[in-house]
């Protein structure tokens, strides 16, 4: 009996989906297969994965180079406690990451998703000052930032209507606007004032691109000035590269565009190439040294059961090998050039505003009347899916973060589908 029902129907009995109000949401779509840039649903329809399944599988789904490596690892060492033990996949991953991380990163702390990666970044910043005997308990963050859904991460994220039930339990956070080139001095003044009036421990930021804020991009020089002021005041700079990391901005990390380097870097999403969940928080020697002591309590007493899972490490290592290959780097350049040409083509269209792109990230806002704002997102989503392209608009923002291996023809199909909405909405 059950077998006659679709996955979408069986799903409804027991499953509770993320970020979903089930009373008004439409049914979840059953996906049965993924390969390269394509997703296949249970009705046999295929879709180009235009957002790399939330910026994870940038080398394509079920990439054989990666799945073979993980399969081999799986038959050799599946899981072992990372407190007191170590293993080759973790050691090799640490060595590979040190070659590509922004300058100054020295130590890696494993966790298992993007929220815990930033949670640990925040805890490192707070405990760094605690261990040094400084009374600094306030985190600084950008308005509209997004850093995850655990308590610390949620606290430093821009206040959203969805977090109402938890706000009384948030850690102390002060917010500044992102620098846009015109307001840089005003933001710096506000920052300096906050530093005078608050005991700021750390500053957490998504460098250059704020993903969940609808791919908003900000000014690199402005960010550099902010980081310089933070560094002068021993405020721990925590770069949340969970979205921007691993090639999406055209460099390995968005922080590579900025002269002043972070003290801490948070990674997840494309870290494991979309294969397995894992997060990592790296830090500089200076941060690590504040925890290195004869006093046990000065250590970082945080640990996840699956820390440094060997399979996830093997996936990450294979991913980094692909990322640093000439072939993948030229793919990234190729997509950058395609985006540039598409931006030129549509930038003067009356339906297109705030066009922006960096690396393989491309976004613009659809110029629609405010009263249509609320329901436009779902209509756009349905239109894209009907046309075989999985894009997930945020409000009236349409963005692309397709896998690096997307072919010219597949990218053209995404562009054509997007242009198709200009006449319809
Ligand atoms: C997705 C994301 C997170 C949270 O990662 P999860 O793995 O979903 O917990 C944190 N920061 C940024 C910038 C993200 O894009």
From TrEMBL:
Site (Participates in the substrate recognition with KAPA and in a stacking interaction with the adenine ring of SAM): 19
Primary location group: cytoplasm
Source domain of life: Bacteria
Keyword S-adenosyl-L-methionine: yes
One CC-aspect GO term: cytoplasm
Organism: Zunongwangia atlantica 22II14-10F7
Sites bearing N6-(pyridoxal phosphate)lysine, chain numbering: 269
Subunit-structure text: Homodimer.
Signal sequence interval, chain numbering: none
Protein name (record): Adenosylmethionine-8-amino-7-oxononanoate aminotransferase
GO molecular function: 2 iron, 2 sulfur cluster binding; adenosylmethionine-8-amino-7-oxononanoate transaminase activity; dethiobiotin synthase activity; pyridoxal phosphate binding
